[in-house]
Write a structure and sequence with these properties.
There is one protein chain. This protein is an alpha+beta fold. The protein has a single domain, classed as RRM (RNA recognition motif) domain (Alpha-Beta Plaits, 2-Layer Sandwich), CATH 3.30.70. Strand 4 and strand 5 form a beta hairpin.
Length: 95
């Protein structure tokens, strides 16, 4: 898998900011077929940081209904990335 096709976006949520402050973790939305090793390599190359651990969660897409027809939102994957002590990834620098 190509490095630029692994990560979709950082997940900026209340839980994610608490994790970033307390346990030096960052949360990303990644491709469902991305492996932990591919996520580790992508983050180390893009952000120039050292990754200690990667944990992932798979989410099934919710079933939605519009009128009589049913559909499904796409499935996605979340990655919790633990960074080496003293390193950070800043998404909103200078805001």
């Amino acid at each position: 898998m190509k490095i630029d096709s692994v990560l979709i976006a950082p997940l900026i949520t209340e839980k994610g900011t608490i994790l970033a402050e307390k346990s030096n973790q960052v949360v990303f939305k990644v491709r469902p077929k991305a492996t932990k090793n591919a996520i580790r390599k992508a983050i180390e190359e893009l952000f120039k940081v050292d990754v200690v651990a990667v944990r992932t969660c798979n989410y099934l897409g919710k079933e939605r209904r519009v009128g009589r027809s049913y559909g499904r939102r796409p499935a996605w994957k979340k990655a919790y990335v633990t960074l080496k002590e003293g390193q950070r990834i800043e998404f909103f620098e200078g805001v």
